[in-house]
Amino acid sequence: ANADMYVERANESVRIALNGKLPKPDADVQLENARILYQTGIEAQPTSFQALTGLSIVSLLQGKVKDGVKYGEAAVAANPNYAGGYYALAAAYSDSSKAADSASKGKLIGMSQQANLKAGLLDKPNLQGREVPDGKAVFRYFETGGRTMVITMPR
């Protein structure tokens, strides 16, 4: 199975959820559909850093910050040269810092800034110098500049 197909379909669901035209319950259904599709992409290709990044993003959009961190870290581990993984991880650490106790807050903010800096180094034209993103900003990047193009061979 092709993980890229599942990622593309999941992106369509996230795009529909974020367009602002759906009532919240319907948008939540679209986000859950996206989560299932990204998860299926990982089942098809366990090392799919793009499916892992998508899962990190949709987790953040669903308010599941711990999952956002877990999948963001997995995306970076799967491909340490992928800016989108670091950008998602920056958002996940940032969101995580908002609910952290004072002892952990500073560390998580630092980790968020470091991940954001790494994303900027890996994609200088699009991410260098940007502020730490939220889930929506990460998705906008992921959907446009943060995806590896898939070109099939002609037959």
Spell the H/E element sequence. HHHHHHHH
Largest sheet: none
Low-confidence stretches: none
Question: Could you tell me the radius of gyration in angstroms?
Answer: 15 Å
Tally of helical runs: 8
Task: Give the overall silhouette.
Answer: globular
Q: What's the average pLDDT?
A: 92
Query: Quick one: how many beta strands?
Result: 0
Strand coverage percent: under 5%
Terminal CA distance: 19 Å
Proportion in helices: over 70%
Secondary-structure class: mainly alpha
Describe it:
With 155 residues, the chain is mostly helical. 74% of the residues lie in helices and 0% in strands. The chain contains eight helices and no strands. The longest helix is centred in the N-terminal third of the chain and has 21 residues, at 24-44. It is globular and about 50 Å long. The model has no long low-confidence stretch (mean pLDDT 92).
Gist of the model:
The protein is mainly α and about 160 residues long. It is about 75% helix and about 0% strand.
Layout of helices and strands:
Layout: H1 3-18, H2 24-44, H3 49-61, H4 65-78, H5 83-98, H6 102-122, H7 124-127, H8 135-143
Overview features:
155 residues, mainly alpha, 0% strand
